[in-house]
């Protein structure tokens, strides 16, 4: 055994394999784990982990730090929640390849699809690249707190090869398809982890235009997949509405067949089609039985929007009496909304809009977001239920909730995975043999969603706190967000606590692990806002053997690097 540089002493080790917990020491040298067991050796740095959980660092395969990674050494909030590796470039959006005249278009696409302020992207991104390999080189020159990997986004690729025709969603010619394939293969060989695309109407530019990839034909998708597969590496990631389930899924089967590579699809329960998720899982099961590697990326809780005066959305946005004060700073808006006359005008207009059927009025799906937040709220706690108990209109309840904490509070509106007002469907999705933990969207939706805290919810809600249904075994939960996610994208060198693996490790006070309510910060370039969410209980997060976060605070260490492509498993 190499001379240890760090030893984590006497922790309760969950090693990422799904094995039961055991008490052990973990020794680290040269950025790798060198021993797990009872050790007599000493090290210059030691962490007393008696009574604490010791786990691999979490691997988050669905984030959008594509812009932030170019200017910010801290990939927060993901790194605040024990994540030690993120994969960005999902949903077909990103910033390479790009020609100079098209830079604004890519910003508009990212701003619209992922709710990242365009002003922040304009000021923060330095555009030191044109090609995707050049983008990787620019990322590789910067140090970060955690590791990150990038995928080739179809939206940028289509615009780069097809120009205006690509943006207008016109069919690609055989020559254009071949060129896109060449560029993807070039990117994979340079270190891209995969290729992503989007086929959902929910994804639009900040101008309201559909994403360039929305109607890309099968020959284009399969041609790109085949070119990726020719490299013998890379993964495929897709988000789709599946309006024509059979046709869409057949196309994705053909992509998996042509490439011979793993493919993942975003999957959640939608209120309008509450059983659609099951139909898609059935097709995924059949594809795997036929020898294809297709998996669903699923969320660990409802995918929910935060409504508030600081947020991008609130229920009074289409209310003219509110619009008159909407652009005021929050403190001034709160004062104006506390004026009895203003309150009466806003609520009267809300009632009139409701009578006309023109109002954001899903009161039964709106819940006050407390501290700590409850992500499986009971229907009795909804705005509608509270209004009924108090004999008030739901709009009055919402009005008062928006003013709490001087306008800094949030109302939680679960969009997906909450049709039945519990998380039983989410549990079935998580437990499915062909699903992966994903969809956190870390770094994105900065004014509406804060789901980079998924790893903490996975441990606390599913492993300890759930009261409204079955919990899940802690060893399995850790494996699901470490070894399983790492393996799914070809990062076989991490996600397990065993000799030879990367020393990406969490030391967690599980008994006191706790999410805090999201808060709005104004720390993006150009003063842009973003939702951030802290957690208590992560005593140390270690990347490549260096403690990067201790008790929730960055230590100054920046061992995180760009991960170029798939990584082999360590040899014995």
Cα shape: globular
Rg from C-alpha positions?
24 Å
CATH topology of the domain at 59-302 and 418-452: TIM Barrel
Total DSSP E strands = 24
- For the record, the CATH class of the domain at 59-302 and 418-452 is Alpha Beta
Query: Segments where pLDDT lies below 50 for 5+ residues?
Result: none
Structural class: alpha/beta
Whole-Å distance between the termini? 12 Å
Described by strand count, sense and barrel closure, the largest sheet is: 9 strands, mixed
Helix content: 25-40%
Assembly context of the chains:
single chain
Mean pLDDT equals 97
Helical stretch count? 19
Beta-strand content bin: 15-25%
> CATH architecture of the domain at 59-302 and 418-452, please?
Alpha-Beta Barrel
CATH superfamily of the domain at 59-302 and 418-452: Metal-dependent hydrolases
């Amino acid at each position: 055994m190499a001379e240890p540089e760090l030893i984590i002493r006497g922790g309760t080790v969950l090693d990422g394999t799904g094995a039961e917990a055991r008490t052990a020491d973990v020794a680290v040298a040269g950025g790798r784990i060198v021993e797990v067991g009872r050790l007599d050796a000493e090290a210059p740095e030691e962490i007393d982990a008696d009574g604490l959980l010791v786990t691999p660092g979490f691997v988050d395969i669905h984030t959008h730090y594509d812009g932030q990674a170019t200017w910010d050494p801290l990939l927060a909030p993901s790194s605040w929640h024990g994540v030690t590796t993120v994969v960005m470039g999902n949903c077909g959006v990103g910033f390479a390849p790009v020609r100079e005249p098209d830079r604004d278009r890519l910003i508009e696409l990212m701003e619209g699809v992922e709710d990242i302020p365009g002003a922040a992207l304009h000021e923060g991104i330095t555009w030191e690249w044109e090609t995707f390999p050049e983008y990787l080189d620019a990322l590789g020159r910067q140090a970060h707190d955690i590791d990150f990997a990038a995928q080739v986004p179809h939206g940028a690729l289509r615009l780069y090869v097809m120009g205006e025709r690509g943006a207008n969603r016109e069919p690609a010619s055989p020559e254009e398809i071949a060129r896109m394939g060449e560029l993807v293969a070039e990117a994979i060989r340079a270190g891209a982890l995969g290729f992503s695309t989007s086929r959902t109407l929910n994804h639009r530019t900040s101008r309201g235009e559909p994403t360039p990839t929305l109607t890309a034909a099968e020959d284009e998708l399969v041609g790109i997949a085949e070119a990726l597969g020719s490299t013998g590496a890379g993964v495929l990631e897709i988000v789709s509405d599946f309006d024509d389930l059979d046709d869409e899924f057949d196309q994705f089967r053909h992509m998996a067949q042509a490439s011979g590579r793993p493919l993942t699809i975003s999957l959640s329960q939608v209120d309008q089609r509450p059983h659609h998720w099951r139909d898609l899982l059935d097709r995924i099961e059949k594809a795997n039985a036929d020898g294809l590697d297709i998996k669903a990326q699923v969320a660990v809780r409802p995918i929910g929007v935060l409504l508030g005066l600081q947020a991008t959305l609130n229920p009074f946005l289409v209310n003219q009496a509110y619009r008159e004060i909407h652009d005021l700073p929050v403190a001034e808006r709160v004062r104006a909304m506390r004026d009895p006359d203003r309150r009466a005008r806003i609520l009267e207009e809300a009632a009139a809009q409701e009578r006309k059927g023109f109002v954001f009025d899903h009161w039964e799906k709106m819940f006050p977001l407390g501290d700590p937040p409850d992500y499986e709220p009971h229907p009795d706690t909804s705005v509608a239920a509270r209004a009924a108990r108090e004999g008030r209109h739901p709009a009055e309840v919402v009005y008062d909730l928006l003013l709490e904490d001087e306008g800094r509070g949030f109302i939680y509106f679960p969009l997906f995975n909450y049709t039945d007002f519990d998380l039983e469907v989410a549990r079935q999705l998580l437990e499915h043999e062909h699903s992966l933990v994903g969809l956190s969207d870390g770094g994105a939706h900065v004014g509406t969603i804060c789901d980079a805290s998924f790893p903490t919810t996975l441990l606390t809600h599913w492993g300890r706190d759930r009261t409204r249904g079955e919990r899940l075994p802690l060893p399995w939960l850790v494996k699901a967000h470490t070894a399983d996610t790492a393996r799914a994208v070809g990062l076989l060198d991490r996600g397990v606590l065993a000799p030879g693996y990367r020393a990406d490790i969490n030391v967690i006070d599980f008994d006191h692990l706790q999410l805090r309510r999201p808060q709005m910060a104004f720390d993006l370039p150009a003063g842009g806002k973003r939702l951030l969410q802290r957690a208590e209980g992560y005593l140390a997060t270690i990347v490549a053997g260096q403690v990067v976060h201790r008790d929730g605070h960055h230590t100054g260490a920046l061992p995180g690097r760009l991960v170029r492509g798939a990584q082999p498993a360590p040899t014995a």
